[in-house]
Amino acid sequence: MACAATALLLVLPAGRLDAQITLVQCYEAARNNYPLVKQYGLIDQTEGYNLSNAAKGWLPQLAVNARASLQSDVTTMPFDADRMAAVIPGFSIKTMSKDQYQLTAELSQAIWDGGTIAAVKNMASAQAKAERAGIASELYALNGRVNGLYFGRLLQDELLKQNAILQSELLTNIEKVTAMIANGVANESDRESLRVELLNAQRAAIELQASRKAYVSMLASLTGLSIGDETALALPKLPGLPLSTDIMRPELAALDAQDVLISSQNKRIHAGTMPRLGLFVQGGYGRPGLNMLSNTFEPFYIAGIRLSWNIGSFYTLKNDLHKTEASRRTVDVQRQTFLFNTGLQLLQQKTEVMKMEELIRADREILDLRASIKKAAEAKLANGVISVTDLIREINAEDLARQTAATHRIMQLIAVYNYMYAQGQQTDSYNR
Q1: How many CB atoms lie within 10 A of CB 359?
Q2: Which of 46, 51, 313, 385 could form a disulfide with 380 if both were Cys (CB 3.0 to 4.6 A apart)?
Q3: Does residue 22 surpass a pLDDT of 60?
Q4: Buried b (16+ CB within 10 A) or exposed e, 75-102
């Protein structure tokens, strides 16, 4: 029995309870470790800048203009200035210069902008929300990758346990055959046959260990966690059946966010057709000033209220609205396509879950029968009724049944959690 214990220690790595990691921890770690998560901060910054810029549309706007021009003609009086000077002593009208200069500064304040600023702010928020939802759907795909690596490692652990049991049984039977050889009721070839089977089991354990290391390495790289050969992975609980059929994937939230963004674009288009009302004050210095008959440099100012309406925006209004409606229909088609494909995926996964339930029930009966048959074979060997070859066949048959049952238990978890992934039950902890 000491040899059997040694075999167990050689096959199974030591797992520490204090180093146990759960599937949910791996989900969260993979999400936080993935470079794309940094995009959230950039989206927040961009949204802040866009909202700040839009709000500044209500601040007074200052415009400075300078102009120098040379005209081919200037305004003149409709009479002969020299003749008027002869009739009226002291009468003189200077001719305007053809080179004119003007420097102006205008301060304007919007009173009503037709809802443009509010529409721009809503569109900036909707754009940021759509981008966040898109990233959330991409990050959710990491859950599927984590499932594959996490359950792959658990499957290797389970197969290693079954391999250890097989080696233990082979060692036990080698000891029995050794005693039988000493009593002259067995041959050395019988013990060698068992040793060959033990070597085959040890070779299989080496392959399983290599696969296990690969899963450990990839899971550690994906999550950024310190996961080593000694780290234990908690076996997830099997959720109660039947599973929910409601689809709650983050991709649907991303499509909903696209709908909101399209609605905000519509509001921005309608706001572009509205008139604008504002106050303004303009001050300047130039030649001529406001007095067109003065040919000297003079300061001037103008203050008032201004109404502007770009009628040209109505020319493209219908086409712009048709474009957004086309975008909305595209989103609807994408939603229908996603729901259709996901429905098919859920149907496939549901079939797999039901199959695993049936297989596990059959495994229990097969294991009971195989254990009984092997126990009877060991008794027959002790009584010299069957050969060691017959016993080896029964040991291998029971081992195969145990490995198949162990594989089916893990495959059932994989099928259930893949169903949950496709259905979207793993989204609650990862929404911002």
Answers
A1: 17
A2: 385
A3: yes
A4: eeeeeeeeeeeeeeeeeeeeebeeebeb
